């Protein structure tokens, strides 16, 4: 198998099954060997999967026969070195796989698959772009209801409703809606706090289309922002602009992170920008590449990443501004097109 030391992949996680087959199932196994694609599943999915995967061999089994059937297929394919998902397979499943298929050598393949998934096809880019369009349209519809007295959860509920009504199949993750001092907690759990006049509002949200996620954060003020928070907003916005202007294929993730980070450090907020400047997005909300200071991996064309600097002052408030972009040879294609002003 190109780029890996295995000749066959055995895929048991639903996310990687979906990556290779484009079909979303809760049970089954995908086997990839040279030009052969096998999908083993049960009665619930057999009819559908065999209809959409015309070029695949689709096998219907009783769930308890899974590992036996995998062994039978690996034997038929003359597989030798079998890649398995070391990062997601439970110990129990691995032991069952390993003992049912004792004639084969097993090698970890999660890193190889994750690297493959980091570079998106045109089709994948279109799905993520569609998810982002839905998310930003939904936010546009929800902004007018963000007035003093509304709770964080009411805003989150409306975001979910609007995304589904606009065609999302699901949320990419639970929306983060944080008012006032709660915005200082980067992965805040949306709660019952009511919006007060002149509060900051941080909203981090994403939609899902055909399994693919989007991710965007905006931070704004309903009313008159205080001087300090306005300054922080400006620093974060400028840091993000600087990164967006400089990120392109061929630079390292470290370099991409440092464009945003050094701007924030130079304005005295380095210690309160405590997370990576970005991350890959795809079938999962966080995937490779890791856009962080200690990551030497090189950005490649058609990687999809976020650029999300943030400054968080404990007990006071925080600002994060996040766009989702496609890395291109000579720059980026920004899939995000939503106002970044402190007053919307
Ligand atoms: Zn986000
Ligand atoms: Zn993110």
Secondary-structure blueprint of this entry?
Blueprint (H helix, E strand, L loop, with lengths): L7 E4 L2 H8 L7 E5 L2 E6 L1 H10 L4 E4 L5 H11 L4 E4 L6 H10 L4 E4 L1 H9 L3 H21 L9 H14 L4 E2 L4 E4 L20 E6 L1 E3 L2 E2 L2 E6 L5 H20 L6 H14 L11 E3 L6 E5 L12 E4 L2 E4 L3 E4 L2 E6 L2 E4 L10
Parallel strand pairs: 1-5, 3-4, 5-6
Antiparallel strand pairs: 1-2, 2-3, 7-10, 8-9, 9-12, 10-11, 13-14, 15-18, 16-17, 18-19
Helix pairs in contact: 6-7, 8-9
Bound molecules: zinc ion (2 copies).
Structure description:
Helix content is 34%, strand content 23%. The protein has 9 helices and 19 strands. The strands form 6 sheets. The chain has a 6-stranded mixed β-sheet, with helices on both faces. Strands 7-10-11 form a 3-stranded antiparallel β-sheet. A 3-stranded antiparallel β-sheet has the order 8-9-12, covered by helices on one side. The relative contact order is 0.11. One zinc ion (ZN) binds next to loops.
Strand content: 15-25%
The strand count comes to: 19
N/C terminus separation: 51 Å
Tally of contiguous helical segments: 9
**What integer is the average pLDDT?**
97
List keywords for this structure.
single chain, 344 residues, alpha+beta, three-stranded antiparallel sheet, 19 strands, 34% helix, 23% strand, binds zinc ion
What would a concise description of this structure say?
The chain has 344 residues and is α+β, with helices and mostly antiparallel strands. 34% of the residues lie in helices and 23% in strands. Strands 4-3-2-1-5-6 form a 6-stranded mixed beta sheet, with helices on both faces. The protein has a 3-stranded antiparallel beta sheet with strand order 7-10-11.
